[in-house]
Specification:
Largest sheet: 6 strands, mixed
Number of strands: 31
Distance between the termini: 26 Å
Strand content: 15-25%
Strand order of the largest sheet: 5-4-17-16-15-6
Structural class: alpha/beta
Radius of gyration: 25 Å
Bound molecules: ligand MGD, molybdenum atom
């Protein structure tokens, strides 16, 4: 690997002094050293706010210092002292803003006032809140059908805002509620619901203390869930085996120096993975199948559990026997000895947790892969006992809660019945658009108004050129946002930016300061209250925005919208009426640390169609792609939060000051006769033609041959809209068939 200024391999453990230094730098960059440090002391505390970073649960009862480097970046970027004002918009035409990169847009600071697009000057100009709501109401009420409007949600939205939002959308008359889950853990929900009767993970942090083995597939906790490293470190220290499957060697899965452990700050570190395997991209269905095969063939199944709680074992075991080692090795990219070794770790463990992330969900065969991982757990009764179970590690801090609150384009009839009864209206029954269908509908003109509660739809979605065209064809696009992003500058004929309060800010309503609630990746529901003064006097809270929008749009609604937002307890009382598991919500959520939503699998109850958990056989065929093409995965760097680019470094992977890089194996470089440092175009090859991105620096990396990695969102242009997971329709942004071409000299 070339050792120059941009690329120099990182030889230290994850965490350590560099994590502290980088946190400090983030506070300095946002000019919030004092405010930021003060703010951070309240992150993930019983009386503080829920970190707007990831959905990993808190250990707030045990520690006064509950944050991580990337949590600091998320908080610093929200608490920033920088502001985007109407003067900024007066200075810059939208066409000019659209030419700036994502890092520039994010770095301008917090949005401060509602703005409307003015086509005559190609600028955003100030607009009053009432006028903004009237504009949206007129557009919505002028549509031929409510199904011509789309209401997107990103997973930072609180339970209270999400509940009101889905209620408003359904009273208005549509189930067009796509969300970031559609691009994220949708496959986990689809797979687990069918198999175990609940789409959520079953484990808690206490299970991490009791597991004998933790298997981690397709997840990079060192960057995306740094607080998980603390749990893995404790587990490793007490002898729990940690088995990682990842095409890349991710530093956080290898070694961690805990900034809270003095010895580790003096140079020691803890080894995390006891076993580390590098399958090829998309090889996990074969890996999981191989592990199941060994368990069955070595007679290591838990017959009592299988007989009592499952269906379909015999057919599954037959299918495994028929699967050849040849195929398993070819498709996984691992050798039989490695797969048998990993299986033996699993067999030797009395209680095993299986974790997974986007490396599993964003593939065509993701649902099958997740079901194979769950098969593996079922074979040895690794659910419904301490220290064991499935653990899909969610992304956005409240993405799981938003689904619980009804942000879903395919609501169940039972949910709609309860919602309709509680609010005295007839909810629409027809299923709505998911993210991909929403893009298609806007592109074809079947949808004309796009409203986003947070997120950055224009940048987070696949097939950038098509998605941008889809958004531009809308009559109106509206974004409720905290920060400037791509979706504000790729807009409909009319466009509005509605600035809202962030998690860290005090939310004052008629009855005084309010707290909201969130649900983490392990189904703990707890309060979050901000403590910083709002970035501007003109910001509204998300619940207030929904209430005022509903009041403007639905004059005949029987819901007391404005009264509900006077005190969020009122919203929570309504949630308790409609959503299972939220009885006595206001009292239970005020217990420090909150409460756990019951997961039936913890008691070996599986509310599937048959009342049992199911084994599902799945044929291989995950890694199918023409031989002359590479498989490209699009991943996160250490300095980004999804489409938000905080900085240009990816420290653990040794990349500095650049984002347009493409990781490639030494073997492939040699085969092509190219060198580390060469500049290439990446071209995806699909039945409807080719898509390309230009000028990526090749970086020689420890990655299986035939596989490439690059960062999103820059590479989203390469993901064809119809390349997605079977059944779950998650864009297959981790298995893009591509070829490389040398970038032509300018
Ligand atoms: N700081 C920070 N925190 C975040 C986010 C962020 O962007 N920044 N995003 C949040 C969100 S919304 C989410 S969903 C999570 C995402 O967290 P992750 O799931 O960790 O997301 P990715 O960076 O996409 O990384 C996926 C990992 O899967 C591996 N991988 C890719 N393809 C395969 C494969 O075929 N097989 C296997 N076994 N591995 C594979 C990649 O090498 C990489 O290590 O993080 C959340 N937390
Ligand atoms: N190629 C590729 N594409 C991917 C992925 C991938 O791995 N590869 N990952 C996918 C995944 S897992 C996800 S979850 C999606 C993410 O998709 P999104 O959730 O749509 O995107 P984010 O980048 O998280 O959204 C960032 C914006 O949210 C706004 N925001 C931040 N905080 C708040 C808040 O408190 N309230 C409101 N209203 N707005 C706020 C800010 O304006 C900020 O610019 O991207 C997906 N896209
Ligand atoms: Mo996500």
């Amino acid at each position: 690997m070339a050792d120059d200024k941009t690329i120099h391999p990182y030889d230290k453990a994850a965490g350590g002094w560099d994590a502290l230094r980088s946190s400090w730098q983030a506070l300095r960059d946002q000019q919030v050293v004092f405010k930021g440090a003060h703010t951070l002391l309240r992150a993930n505390q019983p009386k503080g706010f829920d970190c707007p970073g990831c959905a990993w649960p808190d250990r707030n009862a045990h520690s006064t210092f509950e944050f991580c480097e990337n949590g600091v970046k998320a908080v610093a970027n929200e608490a920033t002292s920088k502001r985007v004002t109407h003067e900024f918009f007066a200075q810059h035409a939208v066409a000019w803003l659209a030419r700036q990169d994502d890092h520039f847009l994010e770095a301008q600071g917090r949005l401060t006032e509602p703005m409307a697009y003015d086509a005559a000057t190609d600028r955003y100009v100030p607009v009053g809140w009432d006028e903004a709501f009237a504009t949206i109401a007129t557009a919505l009420n002028g549509l031929a059908s409510p199904d011509e409007a789309i209401f997107y949600t990103s997973g930072r939205t609180s339970n209270e805002a999400a509940f009101l939002y889905q209620l408003f959308v359904r009273e208005y008359g549509t189930n067009n509620l796509p969300d970031c889950s559609n691009m994220c853990h949708e496959a986990s929900g689809v797979a687990l619901t069918e198999q175990l009767g609940s789409g959520k993970g079953s484990v808690t942090l206490e299970d991490f203390e009791q597991a004998d083995a933790i298997f981690i597939f397709g997840q990079n906790p060192g960057t995306n869930h740094p607080r998980m490293l603390g749990e893995l470190r404790s587990a490793a220290k007490r002898g729990c085996r940690i088995v990682a499957f990842n095409p890349l060697r991710e530093r956080g899965l290898e070694r961690f120096a805990d900034p809270k452990a003095p010895a580790e700050m003096l140079g020691a570190s803890t080894r995390i993975a006891s076993e580390y395997y590098q399958p090829r991209i998309g090889g996990d269905l074969a890996v999981a199948t191989a592990l199941c095969k060994v368990v069955v063939e070595r007679g290591a199944v838990d017959r009592i559990f299988i007989d009592a709680h499952t269906r379909g074992f015999d057919a599954f075991a037959d299918a495994l026997r028929e699967t050849s080692w040849d195929a398993l090795e070819r498709e996984s990219g691992l050798g039989r000895a490695q797969l048998e070794e990993a299986a033996q770790v699993y067999i030797d463990s009395l209680a095993t947790i299986v974790c997974w992330g986007m490396g599993i969900t964003q593939h065509p065969r993701s649902v099958a892969t997740i079901q194979m991982l769950a098969n593996l757990l079922l074979l040895r009764g690794n659910i419904g006992k301490p220290g064991a179970g499935p653990c899909p590690v969610r992304g956005h801090s409240n993405v799981q809660g938003d689904r619980t609150m009804g942000i879903y384009e395919q609501p169940s009839p039972a949910f709609l019945d309860r919602l309709g009864a509680a609010f005295d209206f007839q909810p629409p029954r027809k299923h709505g658009y998911d993210t991909i269908a929403a893009i298609e509908a806007m592109h074809d003109g079947r949808a004309k108004v796009f409203f986003a509660m947070g997120g950055n739809f224009a940048a987070a979605t696949p097939d950038t050129a098509r998605t941008h065209e889809a958004l531009r064809r809308c009559a109106l696009t509206v974004h409720v946002s905290t920060k400037l992003n791509r979706s504000h500058v790729v807009h409909g004929r009319n466009a509005l930016i509605l600035p809202c309060l962030g998690r860290t800010e005090i939310d004052v309503q008629a009855s005084g300061p309010q707290a909201v609630t969130v649900e983490d990746s392990m189904s703990m529901v707890h309060l979050s209250s901000g403590m910083n003064p709002p970035a501007s006097g003109q910001l509204l809270s998300e619940p207030a925005i929904v209430a005022r929008l509903a009041t403007a749009t639905l004059p005949r609604s029987r819901t007391p919208w404005m009264q509900l937002v006077e005190h969020y307890d009122g919203i929570r009382d309504r949630i308790a009426q409609v959503i299972d598991g939220f009885d006595d919500f206001n009292a239970r959520v005020r217990v420090p640390g909150g409460f756990h939503l019951h997961h039936p699998g913890r008691e070996c109850v599986f509310p599937t169609a048959s009342g049992k958990a199911h084994f599902f056989p799945h044929a291989l065929g995950s890694a199918a792609k023409p031989n002359d093409l590479f498989q490209l995965m699009t991943v996160r760097s250490h300095d980004q939060y999804n489409t938000t680019v905080y900085g240009l470094d990816d420290r653990y992977r040794g990349v500095h000051g650049v984002r347009k890089v493409c990781f490639i194996s030494a073997h492939d470089l040699q085969r092509l006769g190219w060198n580390d440092g060469d500049t290439v175009d990446i071209v995806s090859v699909w039945h409807d033609g080719e898509r390309s991105v230009h000028g990526f620096r090749l970086v020689e990396y420890d990655i299986p041959h035939g596989c490439l990695a690059a960062y999103f969102p820059e590479t989203n242009a390469l993901v064809p809209l119809d390349h997605h997971a079977e059944r779950a329709r998650t864009p297959a942004s981790k298995s893009i068939p591509v070829r490389l071409a040398r970038t032509a000299a300018a």
